[in-house]
Write a structure and sequence with these properties.
Layout: H1 11-33, H2 39-51, E1 54-55, H3 56-63, H4 67-79, E2 83-88, E3 91-99, H5 101-122, H6 127-149
Antiparallel strand pairs: 1-3, 2-3
Helix pairs in contact: 1-5, 2-4, 3-4
Length: 150
Amino acid sequence: MKRTRPQPPDLWTALSLFRSRVFNRMQGGLSSLDLDLSMPQTIALSHLAEAEPLTVGALQARMRRSQAAVSHLATQLELRGLIERGSDPDDARRTVLRLSKEGRRRMGQLDRIRKRSFEDVLRAVPLTVRRQLEAALIATLEALESDEAR
């Protein structure tokens, strides 16, 4: 009986498996942080870390959630001391969200764990393949950004 070789996964499946394996590697480091954050809270903090200050409306657009849900998330994060609300320097009528000192510290820890986990997964991949992956991802991001700009 001839055994057939399994087909390589399609791109979507490969990306899903990659994401899953990176997240699995992160779990040990994340449990040591004792963040006790929901996924939406973590995503909100990540968006703020990327582009603070943000209004609730701008954070809502980035997260693609309702204004009420994002406002509730912001309140929860503020009560935990991870973000601060303040006046927009360009328009004092608007309120903006920023990471607090503690929020910035926690996001720094989280980013270090994410980066280390990602590097651990890619360590076994030859450098030429990593560079090809990087180029492909950058090209894809540029295409997405130009598509969003239209």
